[in-house]
Amino acid sequence: xxxxxxxxxxxxxxxxxxxxxxPVTLNEYAQHLPTVEVDTFFYALPQxxxxxxxxxxxxxxxxxxxxxxxxxxLHERGQDKGALAELFExxxxxxxxxxxxxxxxTVLFQFPPYFDASPExxxxxxxxxxxxxxxxxxxxxRNQTWYRPGTLKSLVAFCRxxxxxxxxxxxxxxxxxxxxxxxxxxxxxxxxLRLHGQNTSGWxxxxxxxxxTRTLYRxxxxxxxxxxxxxxxxxxxxQEVCVIFNNNSGKDAAPNALKLQKxxxxxxxxxxxxxPEQLDLF
Length: 282
Known about the structure:
By secondary structure, the chain is α/β, with parallel strands linked by helices. It is about 35% helix and about 15% strand. The radius of gyration is 18 Å and the shape is globular.
């Protein structure tokens, strides 16, 4: 079983560049980690040339987890079905360079908290598979109705039928606005963990500072060990388990990721060549 580890975005991780106070370049990031999650697509589809520029900065084995556009995840309810189908088609055209190079790990559909286990939303997931065709899809559900005892087993079977990777999200537990951490192999090719941190007050924060507090959290070694155990005990084993750290409000994602890599005893191959000033970093 292959294990890959990445972070959300590449610019905000000073631990990768001797804690210099400047944005990390994609090439510098790719010297340490083999994958990255990009949320650009959630807000607006980038130009194809932008994607081509990204590909020029990374080795051929580097892969991207890219978010679905917010229209595709029904962050806007009541959209015209025809317009939605066109959006999906435009999206597929935009990501074509990633597909052609084999560097699209998966498209992440992070659904809003009000996307629930209703017949309408279940049917929408079928539409997602129809419109996405054979492209890899991971879904992160944020409504507890999906994880009720009477529903969870059906959800896992449903994801297997549609070859969706069901994301195991770690976030504050025991509150209405969160779902439990649940890791299962629903896609034989890829399982995924997204680790947001356990900052309950930040998770519930509704004021203007929510972006700065929501993921303000540093995982302890004991917590990282729990993830290590979950990954190592996952059955059936998929071809790959990808771990994405999103706990970056305090720049903790990279240090936590590198610590988990060490715990798992994983050595990444095919990384970008190290810059001279990076050779003594780790």
